[in-house]
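Annotated sample (chain length 561).
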Amino acid sequence: MSLDALSRGFRDQYLSYDEITAQLRAWADAYPDLAHLQSLGQTPEGRELWLLTVGRDRDRTRPSAWVDGNMHASELAGSSVALSIAEDLLRLHTGEVPHDLPEATAEVLADSLVFVMPRISPDGAEAVLTTGRYVRSVPRDERPNQPVRWIAEDIDGDGMAYVMRIEDPTGEFVESKAFPGLLVLREPGDRGPFYKVWPEGRIEGFDGHHVPDPNFLGDNYPDLNRNYPFDWRGDHDQAGAGDHAGSEPETRAVVDFARQHPEIFAWLNLHTFGGVHIRPCGDKPDTKMNPSDLALYRYLGERAETLTRYPMVSGFEEFTYTPDTPIRGDLSEWAYNERGCVAWVCEIWDLFAQLGMERPKRFVDYYTNLTRDDMVRLAEWDRDVNDSRVVRPWKRVTHPQLGEVEVGGIDPRIGCWNPPPHLLGEVCTGLSQLWLETTALSPRIEVSSETASVGDLTRVTLTVRNTGYLPTSGLDSAEKLAHVEPLRVEIVDGKPATEADRRREIGHLQGWGRGRGSGAGALYFLRSAGSVSTRTVELLVDGPVTLRVGSCRVGWTSITV
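Output written by the structure step:
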């Protein structure tokens, strides 16, 4: 059956857990030699944490890439992009080169493995899809110390939980005169009615008088993207951190798999929204970043902006919510710092560009700089382009605790948090091509041999080359990590002349890539590096031998001489 016939439509709609499961199983059943489906564990609600491995000969270790999506429950577009990457790889393996990729790129991809986890938080995504309630990551909260708080629930009986407004002379919001029904921040000189805006739901522990502040983690804790074991800090320092690093089953599943696969050299963590790629470092400025890593990310940033129209920015310099205060325990920084991966976050969906907003000095300030005019433009765009999915009519109901309220107002799922379905395919195409190109930068080990007689012995001369773009460490900064071991030559069958010839370490080999801004290739001093991508090793052996060359980082190449 063709890939088109197998598609569940993820490029133009947002799939439920059952639909994603059906899509993954359809590929695994139709292409058992190319697509392997496994569960990394189960969620508390019993859903499988699916991982699809795409590529031939999956048991052969070689440099591999990872992509995941939908760790934050409402950020559904990440699942569609991840599935699109998987489908495009299957197309390539079945004879159709996607995106008109160059032949050399397609050849590398044909020998690659890519791990695809389309939905890290299936419980959270299902809650968002079916109830409309806000969930940061997971729809649970097992903290023993629960203060008075908001619990998201359906109040008006329509099965969904959006927001509520209630008239209050101290309210911070007022209805827009330019767009009826749209609430905007109150300003001096405005005339009422004024409104308080709260989650649609009830107040747990309500005393009948005092309404608690809503909190984005109030009834859904923790934030999975603060639960990874790099620079983890407790909740007193980092909201949403969890009980300890890796405390959540979704987080542990990802961490445990990655630790078993040191060959993963590239990692794409898909989020929404904003239209931006967020690269390392997240904890220090570029002036303190490894220069070779920075040059690589400059190159990737160029390709990213060309293919997706999203800029690539430093996490520390442009995406700390409080300047100079790093985000702790997030996945992409763990993948970069602890796993040595070429890793970054993509915040899918360039809503700010859709509204024609001018980019601020720090990209993250887009989220807090929306003016009244911006809000009206968003509402008009929603009406004209998005079938009025975001700005919804208000409905008057009686709240069991607060009396007369109105529910409805805002449904940000499609249009704010995620692109409209008719724009989803374009988003998937650009990001898929970018990730396929990135995967093809992998180190590639080639080995050749020559022999000569030396009396009763044989001299074996091995030439080991890295013909890939990246070094065998993946990143220059990754060489310090224990699992990023240097290459070695080992005799696995046969007799060496001396025990010293049984195992030889040959170190890491550079790739041919130099990124951007490294100074390489300047016309005024056009020079290559020396033999940094090649090593020659001589061994004396007594009779035929089988050798292997490689490491756990890049896999092994075996030859018999």
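Annotation: Residues 16 and 126 are 6 Å apart (CA to CA).
Annotation: The chain has three domains: 3-127+222-349+418-439, 141-219+354-410, 445-560.
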